[in-house]
Amino acid sequence: LTADLPVGPPDQIRPLIDRLWEVGIPHVVFSMEAGTRADHVVRAVERAGDTGLITGVRGRGLELGAGNLLNDLATAGIDHVSVYYAAHRRDIHDPIFGVGDHVAAEDVIRRVRSKEITPVAEIVLVDATLRELEDTLQALNAQSVRNAGFWALAEPTETTVPALGANALPQAAARV
Known about the structure:
This protein is α/β, with parallel strands linked by helices. It contains nine helices and eight strands. The strands form two sheets. Strands 1-2-3-4-5-6 form a six-stranded parallel beta sheet. A two-stranded parallel sheet has the order 7-8. Helix 1 (10-23) runs parallel beside helix 2 (38-51) and helix 2 (38-51) runs parallel beside helix 4. The longest helix is centred in the first third of the chain and has 14 residues, at 10-23. The chain starts with a strand and ends with a helix.
């Protein structure tokens, strides 16, 4: 069991972490978005780790790799860092996650591995990334990324670029 939580001020996150522990959810992943305060992320990870939870952080390479955040997360006891990784190709990844994020994501993977923290790739499935899925997984394997999560950007319509149509989801799941 895993709970995904947005990062917020410590006084908001602390009771949520405590409640997760009380109900027996052993794993929490904090989602880091643009504008998230680094000190809030670090405090959330510290609190979750002190409580006994397996703890991860998820986000774009641009946010995760900023400043001393990875060093601070390592010191706080983070178990894994999940970085969005749309595709092995920058021309597919950056339009989804922002200019420069592909380079930042690969840098985060290298830095996380050097700190002996588990890197996880979060792969968004849209038409372009699904076409490159095998090559992307090979590229991640070459970077010693052994864990990946997948999520689809889908709409109920047949073809809404870049989202997958809902009818494409079973095939996407089968490919994964």
